[in-house]
Design a protein that fits this description.
Helices cover about 15% and strands about 40% of the residues. The chain is mainly beta. The protein folds into 3 domains: about 40-275, Neutral Protease Domain 2 (Neutral Protease, domain 2, Orthogonal Bundle); about 280-580, TolB, C-terminal domain (Neuraminidase, 6 Propeller), CATH 2.120.10; about 755-935, membrane protein fhac: a member of the omp85/tpsb transporter family (Porin, Beta Barrel). It is globular, with a radius of gyration of 31 Å. The relative contact order is 0.09.
């Protein structure tokens, strides 16, 4: 299959000649449902939504109105155009967005896109969380627009923006009236455990949650110490410096080191007193696994001997389900049961959103994304396999499955497409389902009372505006009134009954930190079970196993920047006193507590496709069939990103003229499961010199194409492409066609698989495969018929200790009168040979690389601050290849050696190869090659 033009711009999908617009590999964004979109439009705001979430859209519009008025005054800025907010009812809907090409991670709640200033949001069923998200993302929109206006007014168009900690810290500082419990948890832990990262070294925690929270703390300090609008003044004076440090010094008279010292003193004064009234978790509890960094949501399997449980963990690189046998002194045996993120049924397992549950020492209930929605799975520990799978009717996202005491039913919290969260019960034997709650409150984390008739759950129904939850009880089989069990001024959540019903364990931040508590149903009182400096998540009750053994809890605890599993006796903290379970709190309605009640609501209009320019990019194209090429790409998209138009203009020669002009135009529709592409092109190819034969391959191909792509899942897809074009080839001294002008029709089909797991240093586990078959017909029977077949399989094996074995097998061949070549040679294929030095009708390539850590850290310090280079990895490689054809037959050849490789930005690497060539008889001397490009 001949590729005539390679477009490197991310937003374009130009096809030239016989190539597909899709990449050779790569995962898929799957659009499971073609939605009809509506728009609320006002002078400065627009809200895009689908009909099912109209009530949520009105809430979003109300919050956006209030937020716009507040932030326009704070930033001293008015938008000339609308701020577009695009609302998705669930996180799974957000994952399907094409506003940006990136995949949306489990931890991403929303984002602000740069090209059009689009704000994408997702609901969780918790209006307070959505309010915070709207405010956070609108800070980004205002900051980007304000900074662009300031610099444009000064005629400055190439400038360095604020550091990421400032960008995200400002968004959090303005979005929150005060830091929430998780912000305090992160900062308290960092300060008390000496993990606070200095401001000049914030690059060390780039993109982490700690960076967000440290940034928020720094911006809170700036606003408190130097005036509420001090960050806005920095943005207004951004033109005065080349970077943040200069602007800070000129505007506030602060050096970065001085700011760091003042801020660190500020947070120490705030959090050091906590050491007087709280204890480290090691003083109160016993660690289950010391080596854990992200072990969460434990559920007890058996406590008759050594503790046996299941949990979610990221210790294998993805969030996966593990079976854990606790040992002594913090040593535990972890066995992976289900790996997340590698196949369609378990596309992803939620982070801290969903708990696990077990029954009878055998069954494990967990949630994973499968297709468009979550599914509930039941895993059999005896069979070591998933034995049940079901979805919840009407619920897209599902959380925290819990078995009934007899194991016949499972209760879950489900988020419907309207964006509201309620409780559902599923009968495992009959498949019957019913909705227990049906209202606008956020109901979650349900558990069964041991009597099997009642459910306890967390809900914000007493204060829906601020999103804080209390604990409630409801009859599981009917619509009995909801009864409060535990209400406080804090956040009370994650309830779980002891098997004998003597107490209810839960998590609360009522004293300023997330701790475990115990509710006594007889006395209707609450006592604390822990008093940690970090935070407690997802407890489960370990039942008493004898007269001398008391009940305890197993739970996730955040401390020292890690989520680890601990056990603690279910006994009150020494010196604590019981308090009433239900405190006298003012009740608010759904339209109170800061939830805006709109006096005017615009009439929604139907969404109309309006393409706007996203990208103008110069392009240098390198391609096996083009020695060089240059030009420009223009990319246009609509507001939702589903409709894309790309245009390309350029030349493959160093002298621009009309005869050598290359043109391409492509329209892509990504709004449906079947992705569609249509386009036209003109490609001119001029003379090329091969090492084995002089080929005058001067020709012009003009035509059009139609492409269809169907993703079966995130990991597999089918691609179909049809191309029709006119061929005008100059006289050729090698190929002997009877006529050098004709019309060609081609069809191509590809199957693509990719489930690789990537880190910064490249893929570490999984497989990628591409099988492509193509047939070209000469419509005038002038000898240009051709058939092509390509096979490419790559496998990555994680050998532990960050050592990876990467293997590649590739075979390409074509047959027919329209002679085309495949090329080998160079650091991308077989090292030690010049790039594309080997060509033939059929090529075979085998490569293996053993990749291992070489230099973990290189840090440089400059006057403007420190800079850390990416790690350097060592590579031992072995390449074997063969080229066959009418004009070239190399026999088997090879190359081996070692490399030093640095990932600049995945998958782009800079590599130095030390290589020896051979033909399986003689070995050459040592050569050195330098390579900048993609890592296979």
């Amino acid at each position: 299959m001949k590729r005539l033009v390679c477009i490197l711009a991310a937003l374009t999908s130009l096809i030239a000649a016989d190539a597909s617009a899709q990449l050779l590999f790569g995962k898929n964004k799957v659009v499971y449902e073609d939605r009809e979109w509506l728009v609320y439009e006002e002078d400065r705001l627009s809200v895009y939504f689908y009909p099912e979430e109209e009530e949520l859209a009105r809430f979003t519009l109300g919050v956006a109105r209030e937020t716009y008025a507040e932030f326009s005054a704070w930033f001293d800025y008015e938008f000339e155009e609308q701020v577009p907010l695009i609302l998705y009812g669930t996180h799974h809907d957000l994952k399907q967005t094409h506003v940006i090409p990136n995949f949306i991670s489990e931890g991403t709640a929303g984002f602000t896109e740069f090209a059009k200033g689009r704000v994408a949001l997702r609901a969780t069923g918790n209006r307070a969380e959505l309010r915070h998200l709207i405010r956070h993302e609108m800070v980004h929109a205002f900051m980007l627009a304000k900074l662009a206006r300031v610099m444009t007014d000064r005629g400055i168009f190439d400038y360095e923006g604020p550091p990421l900690w400032f960008v995200e810290g400002l968004a959090e500082s303005l979005a929150n009236e005060e830091p929430d419990d998780r912000a305090h948890m992160i900062m308290r832990d960092a300060v008390l455990n000496d993990r606070l990262v200095p401001i000049p070294e914030m690059w060390r925690i780039w993109g982490s949650f700690q960076m967000y929270k440290q940034g928020e703390s720094i911006l809170d300090f700036l606003r408190a110490q130097y005036g509420d609008r001090a960050p806005a003044l920095l943005l207004e004076q951004w033109w005065r410096g080349r970077h943040f440090v200069e602007v800070l010094e000129k505007e506030l008279g602060l050096g970065l080191e001085e700011l760091d010292q003042q801020w660190r003193t500020y947070v120490k004064r705030r959090y050091f007193p906590e050491m007087m009234r709280r204890r480290q978790i090691g003083e109160q509890a016993t660690v289950v696994a010391r080596d854990g960094t992200f072990d969460t949501m434990p559920a007890v399997v058996d406590a008759s001997g050594e503790l046996e449980l299941v949990c979610l963990s990221a210790r294998e690189g993805t969030i996966s389900l593990f079976h854990v046998r606790a040992g002594r002194n913090g040593h535990a045996d972890f066995e992976q049961l289900v790996e997340g993120g590698r196949e369609a049924d378990f596309e992803s397992l939620p982070l801290l959103r969903s708990r696990l549950d077990t029954h009878g020492g055998r069954w494990v209930a967990f949630v994973a994304k499968s297709g468009a929605s979550d599914a509930v799975y039941v895993y059999d520990l005896r069979e070591r396999d998933v034995v049940e799978q079901f979805t919840v009717d009407g619920a897209t996202e599902v959380s925290s499955p819990a078995f009934s005491p007899d194991g016949t039913r499972i209760v879950v919290s489900g988020l419907d497409e309207d964006g509201w969260s309620d409780l559902y019960v599923v009968d495992r034997e009959t498949g019957a389902q019913w909705r227990v709650t049906d209202d606008l409150y956020h109901d979650t984390h349900a558990d069964w009372h041991p009597d099997g008739d009642r459910l306890v759950f967390a809900s914000d129904r007493h204060r829906p505006g601020d999103g804080r939850h209390g604990l409630y009880e409801i009859e599981a089989f009917g619509r009995s009134p909801v009864q409060p069990l535990v209400l406080s001024s804090g956040e009370d959540t994650s309830p779980v009954w002891s098997p004998d019903g003597t107490f209810l364990a839960f998590v609360s931040d009522r004293d300023g930190a997330r701790n475990a508590y115990r509710y006594d149903p007889v006395e209707a009182t609450v006592v604390p079970l822990t008093n940690v400096t970090g935070g407690v998540f997802g407890p489960d009750v370990v039942p008493a196993t004898g007269d001398s053994t008391r009940a305890s809890l197993v739970m996730t605890v955040y401390q020292e920047g890690r989520f680890r599993l601990y056990t603690v006796d279910a006994e009150p903290v020494p010196g604590s006193r019981p308090t009433p379970a239900v405190q006298d709190l003012p009740r608010t309605t759904a339209t109170g507590a800061g939830i805006p009640e709109l006096d005017t609501v615009p009439v929604p209009s139907e969404y109309e496709i309006d393409l706007g320019l996203d990208i103008v990019q110069s392009v240098v194209a390198l391609d096996p069939d083009l020695p060089y090429g240059s030009g420009a790409n223009f990319g246009f998209t609509d507001m939702l990103g589903n409709h894309r138009v790309s245009a390309y203009v350029g030349t493959a020669t160093d002298e621009f003229n009309l005869e050598d002009l290359n043109l391409g135009f492509t329209y892509t529709d990504l709004g449906q499961r079947w992705n569609r592409r249509f386009g036209v092109f003109r490609v001119a190819v001029r003379q090329r010199l091969q090492s084995f034969v002089r080929v005058n391959n001067s020709e012009v191909r003009t035509g059009g194409f139609v492409g269809l792509t169907y993703p079966f899942s995130k990991f597999q897809r089918l691609e179909l492409t049809a191309v029709g074009r006119h061929l005008d080839r100059a006289e050729n001294e090698v190929f002997e066609q009877s006529d050098n002008q004709t019309w060609l029709a081609s069809g191509f089909v590809s199957l693509v698989h990719d489930n690789t797991l990537w880190t910064w240093n490249g893929p570490i586990r999984g497989m990628r495969a591409n099988v492509t078959f193509g047939e070209t017909y000469d419509l005038f029977d002038r000898g240009f018929d051709r058939r092509t077949l390509q096979l490419d399989v790559r496998r990555y094996d994680d050998l532990g200790r960050r050592i990876v074995l990467a293997s590649r097998a590739q075979w390409r061949g074509n047959w027919g009168g329209d002679q085309q070549f495949f090329y080998l040679g160079g650091p991308e294929t077989i090292r030690g040979y010049r790039r594309n030095d080997l060509a033939g009708d059929r090529t075979t390539l085998f490569s293996q690389e053993l990749r291992f850590p070489l230099i973990e850290r290189i840090a440089l310090r400059f006057p403007i601050g420190p800079f850390e280079l990416p790690p350097i990895r060592g590579v031992l490689f072995n390449d074997i290849a063969r080229v066959d054809g009418d004009f070239n037959d190399t026999g088997w050849i090879g190359a081996f050696g070692y490399s030093a490789s640095m990932t600049l930005y995945p998958p782009i690497v800079f590599r130095v190869d030390f290589v020896r060539r051979h033909d399986f008889e003689a070995v050459s001397g040592l050569d050195t090659d330098f390579y900048l490009g993609l890592q296979y």
